[in-house]
Specification:
The protein is 58% helix and 10% strand. The chain is mainly alpha-helical and 215 residues long. The strands form two sheets. It has a two-stranded antiparallel sheet. The radius of gyration is 17 Å and the shape is globular. The mean pLDDT is 89.
């Protein structure tokens, strides 16, 4: 699942912390879930291409995706969809990985005071596999496919490619931009990725503005 792969990319295996801020992680994970829903055929764009809606109510085997479908109570723009799907998405994806024995979630303290969560990779091969695949694409060693293309596009949307892959930030960002606009996916998925990317950017900006005004 894209959201599981993305979560593994965000986890710093050395200290159990996330490689990006929580807002970016949540928005990117929500985008990954949305891509999976589009790929599953359960969610699609309206004929005018502006809003996403449920087009197939057939239950999904994956409980996280099935619960996510239920959040589409009406047609909504990609930004709104990302905002709906990001609620508790990090905890839900982490719990799914923990259930599969890939990650162990542990309590920790920020600055010795504030409660937070740490993530211990218990199956390093799983993380290494996805990091290798995305790294090779982000560094230009091979072309993107449906899986790596979506992951790079989502990382690009939240300006996090250089945070999960070691390399020249400017070159990787430029390559990621090209990949995000590339032809590695079907037309329907490509349109979804483009819209989700815009939605993630807008949702991230909105969250940042809300945080700034609140402070």
């Amino acid at each position: 699942m894209l959201h599981e792969d993305l979560m593994l990319l965000f986890i710093n295996g050395q200290n159990g912390k996330l490689r990006a801020d929580s807002t970016s992680v949540d928005n990117a994970l929500a985008g990954a879930v949305l891509i999976e829903l589009v790929n599953s055929g359960r969610v699609a764009f309206e004929p005018n291409g502006k809003k996403l809606q449920v087009v197939d109510p057939t239950p999904l085997k994956d409980p996280l995706l099935q619960e996510s479908v239920g959040r589409f109570d009406k047609p909504m723009k990609p930004q709104r969809a990302v905002e709906r799907l990001r609620k508790k998405v990090r905890d839900n994806v982490a719990a799914q990985l923990e259930g599969r024995g890939v990650v162990r979630v542990e309590p920790r303290k920020v600055m010795g005071i504030f409660p937070a969560k740490g993530y211990v990779i218990t199956e390093e091969a799983a993380q290494n596999e996805v990091r290798k695949a995305v790294g090779e694409v982000a560094l230009g060693y091979r072309g993107a496919d449906g899986r790596t293309g979506a992951l790079v596009a989502l990382l690009y949307a939240v300006k996090a490619v250089h945070k999960v892959v070691d390399g020249d930030k400017r070159e990787m960002t430029k390559r990621a931009k090209d990949i995000a606009a590339g032809n590695w996916a079907s037309e329907a998925v490509r349109r979804a990725v483009e819209a989700i990317q815009a939605g993630v950017v807008a949702a991230t900006a909105a969250a940042a503005a809300a945080s700034s005004s609140g402070g």
